[in-house]
Amino acid sequence: MTFGIRRSRPWALPEREVTDEGLWNERRRFLRLGAAAAVAGLAPPVARAAGVPRTPPLAGVRRAPPPPERPNTWEQITGYCNFYEFGTGKRDPARYAGRLRTRPWSVVVEGECERPGEVGIEEILRFPLEERIYRLRCVEGWSMVIPWVGFPLRLLLERFKPTSAARYVAFETLHEPDRMPGQRRTFLDWPYREGLRMDEAVHPLTILAVGLYGRVLPKPNGAPLRLVVPWKYGFKSIKSIVRIRLVREQPPTTWSQAAPHEYGFYANVNPDVPHPRWSQRYERRIGELRRRPTLLFNGYAEQVAHLYAGMDLRRYF
Amino acid sequence: MAEGRRTATQARLRLAQRAAFAAGALPLALVGWRLWQGAYEPDPIAALADETGEWALRVLLATLAMRPLRRLTGWRWPLAVRRTLGLWAFAWASLHLGVYAGLDQYGIWAEIPRDVLERPFVLAGFAGWLLLVPLAVTSTRGWMRRLGARWQRLHRLVYAVAALALLHQWWIVAPKADLTRPLVYLAAFLFLMALRLPAGRVAARLRRA
Hints:
The structure holds two protein chains of two kinds. By secondary structure, chain A is of the alpha+beta class. Chain A contains nine helices and twelve strands.
């Protein structure tokens, strides 16, 4: 049975329904104008951008080649953070981390090494800085692409001559409840602690970051220096570090102590090891609608899978 | 004369219902405004999921507060607006489910049934919404008449819904270690339940006497 004459091109619109090309090209401007008018007319002075102001540029940074994936914006990266020292909301660090004092700053390095000591932030900034554009995957199921500036953690550790007894590296965040309001609450055992196995710590992908987008690392992101381990869930990449300890035994870490059945010491990104309360198979890249599949070791398997050869990743999650 | 007073009361109660309907629309307008303002950037889907879920819980608890309010104050409007509030709770819960299924899981639809079956907190939330459906459907006067005494029994499901909603929230917030918010909602729920205990009723009667 047929229902009348079929048009030869059923997708084609009659001419009268086609928008004039000039208008079509201007559509975004119309929308913007309309939006601007509405906002100007109605809006209270609410900041649309959630991030923090640009920080000063860093000198002498070796730039990375353009990445295959487009980095997230400054506003997204600085305006959407987990930094519980300043509150549990994603926007709290952008609001409150301004209280953090990043000068003077120094890092104590101690434990199983020949030359324990302290190193000031000015000296740390003299390491050869390079841009590293990494994916960051949060255990909560979202991700970003972030252009960090930093240097391999290995370079800093070597300066203190770790002994063969140093099998793990333990890190600690600044503990200053007067300036870090989150630390006045006791839902986590402050200060924040993290740790890596020595081979993970000296892996060339593991960096200490001191910058973002070629600029000084913003406070919400863990100024003045933080760890970045791109194949692990974001909570491993500890912020605002003041102490590094070279140790013999696997050190306790904040989240694995708070909820041992949910967060392990390794915390490698792995789509096949679900978090007890949510799947890790997919992630939403901030700024995108549709979730994308999560990759084993966050897409860095080629570089790091050998570190875990023979290990049961379900047991050592 | 008694007849006239009754119609006046009824008119006032109807006005209260309309006010409740309008009041229920306010948070919806607020959430829409904040969305427009960019307050939910840069992950509006996650923020909308949180907001719609929390409003569903708030309105549900407000619904449960109407009976004790009536008992404590003697006012008649709390019971008159209860259905409107209950339907708003259902609307928020449906929006919440819609944000999850339609936006959060956009394009990976096969994950949804897996998620519901594998994650206790998703299952609790989904079960709570499912139980709300028959309550919303039978909220009309016709269904009240048809079900008679059974209507009351059926609508006691709302307590199970509230318990499931609280469990759902508890489970999703707990890994973030800050339990303040779910504890506040749990306390509100327990308080409303305590007012239903015989002692609470006696106290209310004494206060009115």
